[in-house]
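Quick question, first post here. What does this chain look like in 3D?
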Amino acid sequence: MTTDPADDIAAALAQLRGRRPRPPFGPGGPRGHEHEHHGHGHHPFHGGPPWADPGQGRFAGVARLRMLDALVAASGPLSVSEIAEAVGVDQPRASRLVQQGVQMRLVEREPDPDDARRTRVRLTAEGERLVSGVRGRRRDAVRSALESFTADERTELARLLTKFADAWPRD
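> Answer (accepted):
Ran it through. Tokens below.
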């Protein structure tokens, strides 16, 4: 835990966002398990957040943001399979997310130094700026929501929510 409970709460909420269990729909039913995020302010894609291009599919923006969060949290570039695991999608879906991120100049591929057949994915400067901005807005929203809490309540909520997020099943 950090010294600021708002940062811990924002991190736990982000962690939970990437771990939504898939609903038990049958064939032909809804497939996605992410929820849409509606941003505010001016963004390049029809007023939506900059990571959400409506031409990429209904839930592409949320999954793409989870991919960017995973790349920030990693100690270095990730393989597509590592991204799939971190985001909670299958490898073909992770490949599409990476390709979309490359097209949007948020991520780039580089050769894997350990295996010439594979590539690794890292954030670009643009991707880092975008994630930093999103995290700042997320942290500000949490701080605003915590205004009526006492310092002890903030600390306890951060502790419990982090514990809850760590225990949440991955699918």
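Residues 39-167 form a domain with the Arc Repressor Mutant, subunit A fold (CATH 1.10.10.10).
The chain is about 50% helix and 5% strand.
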